[in-house]
Amino acid sequence: MYVEMKNISKSFADCKACDDISFGIEQGKLVALLGPSGSGKTTLLRMIAGLEIQDGGDILIDGRVVNDVPGKDREIGFVFQNYALFRYMTVYDNIAYGLKIKKVPAKQIRETVMELIGLVGLSGMEKRYPAQLSGGQKQRVAFARALALKPKLLLLDEPFAAIDAKVRKELRNWLKDMISRVGITSIFVTHDQDEAVEVADDILIINEGRLEQIGRPLDIYKHPNTPFVAQFIGSSVVLDSFTGFKGFDEVKNDSKVVIRPEFVEAFKGDNPRFNKLISAAEKGTLRNIQFRGNCLEISLEVNGVILSTNRSLERRPVRIGDEMYVIVYRIYVINNEETAVHKNVLLKDINVEML
Amino acid sequence: MMNKKAYKRIIPGFGLSFGITLLYLGFIVIIPLCSLVIFTAGISPGVFLETVTRPRVLSSYMVSFSTALAAAVVDAVMGVIIAWVLVRYQFPGKKLMNGIIELPFALPTAVAGISLTHLTTDKGWIGKMFHDAFGIDIAYTRLGITVALVFIGIPFVVRSVEPVLEKMDRGVEEAADMLGAGRTKIFFDIILPEIAPALFSGFSLSFARGLGEYGSVVFIAGNKPYETEIAPLMILSQLQEYDYTSATAIALVMLIAAFIILLINSYIQSRSAKITGGMA
Ligand SMILES: Nc1ncnc2c1ncn2[C@@H]1O[C@H](COP(=O)(O)OP(=O)(O)O)[C@@H](O)[C@H]1O
Ligand SMILES: [Mg+2]
To answer: Does A229 touch chain B (CB under 8 A)?
Structure first.
């Protein structure tokens, strides 16, 4: 483990920003800290960087307890949320700043800076001031500046938040590519699940100052540990109770049921393709239709609960109020941090993947 | 041909407000100042030069410039420290302290002058202390003039620098810190360039004000010719002798000096605006 957090807590006045958080990050990994706004991601990142001191717990970097080591001596590069570039310095001077402080010989500074400027694709812009750069270019300067001292750990706070949607996708791939080229252990903060899933090797999900789950994106998607994670990763419906649905036993006590759109199928009664499934389906009424760019998301009321599913644009048009058959392939049942997958027992003999 | 639509503005009332601005500038600022120039233009260059190079006049310029400059420098340093404390720290009485900053603006300058003089004569609280401890006299010396000008000029610097410090992104300091910069380096490399334009603005205003300050200075100066006689006093004494020609000639030199200071300031402001606005 390159970075280890052990029982980290941090409060601001009466607001618990981090509550007994423990995790480890392996060397060379690109990790996303994912959570809704105000969940404590920035605070956690700043504590790793030594910009904030934890109230309790230990932070280890490369096996060394760094609780009392100032940030500048932790060999960390930090990319701030709004870049925090030095406005009165050129691109070149911004990147060179840390090297000048370290009193690196001028010739070597020049070499390092020019190499970094080349790496981030800003050749020819070294004499510009930050105000003359686009958001994406500022981001690149901030990235290069953070790398100039050859840190062993790179921390990025919402690196794409201030960039418009179009460029953001491009920059995501760019950053992933850069980080793997430099080969540096990196942690980035984001509130956008798509960003985390696309860019990160591992995802840490934070909610209200607590660590909900850590793991590979696909594993988290397939096995959410908590209702929060199930809801936050991928879209899904969370139900407090799920009773008397065809093919499922009643879910008892205070377990929660999570149903993803992929787990639900809706079809008209005269559709021959689903003939065999009708016996396992419930009747529902179409309540809402939303266009999702490449499909429709339709919501149906079934036995008093609203379920939603995605419908291909190639299929028959449907209208609000239509009566449809609704089948649920499987559900997540989550209680006390444990997730179980329950399958529709009426479909035991049918290979639903072949439909 | 320009498209007429291009002149349409979202904020209405440009014509009216610009007209009022021009009228104001014309009546209150430009016309009175021009009249000074025109009046002086009536004097032959020889007379003008003779007037402004009289040894007593020259020495009064010297007194005014040196004390105003020294006071502006002190104001710049002290003003940054006060603004820093007001912006960055929380302490009881902060609101009161913030209010007191403007006192020199609100107080009749004569009141300030008299009280400062009382304090700093060799019988006053502070004056006695300095006289006994270091053998330094404050009142009736150039030091005294400087003290009065520091008092008058400090709000200019505090009020210019304060909003800039308030707006400054703390992340920039943290970024420098993560790159290994110590406190002193952070101040000189990061904070100073950010506040420099505002600081220079406060400095020039305080300098220009110091050049022309009369009320708070005459009491503490003692007005000894060749030693503590300030230029505004020279103008006044010429007026009292009904020598309008000399008075305006001396005044014109002051006007030009103030104008140059403000011109330099405006150049510096526009240069820094270019860097932060992306037009450098
Ligand atoms: N300097 C601070 N002073 C007081 N409260 C803070 C401070 N920084 C963060 N907080 C609080 O801590 C919580 C977590 O904040 P933050 O770590 O910034 O969340 P995130 O980055 O996930 O949006 C929030 O409720 C926020 O209001
Ligand atoms: Mg944040």
So the answer is: no
Is A88 close to B172, i.e. CB distance below 8 A?
Answer: no
pLDDT band at B161 (very low <50, low <70, confident <90, very high): very high
pLDDT at A355: 54
Q: Which atom of ligand 1 is nearest the CA belonging to A189?
A: 21
Residue whose CA is at the smallest distance from ligand 1 atom 18: A42
Tell the residue nearest (CA) to atom 16 of ligand 1. Answer: A40
And the tokens for A114? 């020019």
Select from A145, A198, A150, A149 the least CA-distant residue to A171.
A198
User: For residue B137, is it within any domain?
Assistant: yes
**Residue A192 CA to ligand 1 centre (angstroms):** 18
**Whole-model pTM?**
0.82
Question: Which tens digits make up the pLDDT trace of A125-183?
Answer: 999 999 999 988 999 999 999 999 999 999 999 988 878 877 888 888 888 888 888 89
Position B36 in a domain: no
CATH of residue B68: 1.10.3720.10
Which residues from chain A sit within 8 angstroms of residue B185, using beta carbons?
101
Please check whether residue B7 lies inside any domain of the structure.
no
Residue A257: predicted pLDDT: 84
Among the bound ligands, name the one nearest to the CA of residue A17.
Answer: 1
**What per-residue confidence (pLDDT) applies to B1?**
44
**For the CA of A37, the nearest atom of ligand 1:** 23
Residue-wise pLDDT for B81-101, tens only, equals 999 999 999 999 998 988 898
Number of domains in chain B: 1
Domain of B225, in residue numbers:
44-279
Has residue B9 been placed in a domain? no
pLDDT of residue B131: 87
Ligand 2 centroid to residue A36 C-alpha, Å: 9
Looking at the predicted structure, is the pLDDT value of residue A65 above 70? yes
Ligand 2 mean position, distance from CA A122 (Å) = 27
Residue A240's pLDDT is: 78
- Residues within 5 A (CB) of ion ligand 2: A 42
Q: Does A81 touch chain B (CB under 8 A)?
A: yes
- Atom number in ligand 1 closest to CA A36: 22
Question: Tens of pLDDT along A185-242?
Answer: 999 999 988 889 889 999 999 999 999 999 999 898 888 888 888 888 877 788 877 7
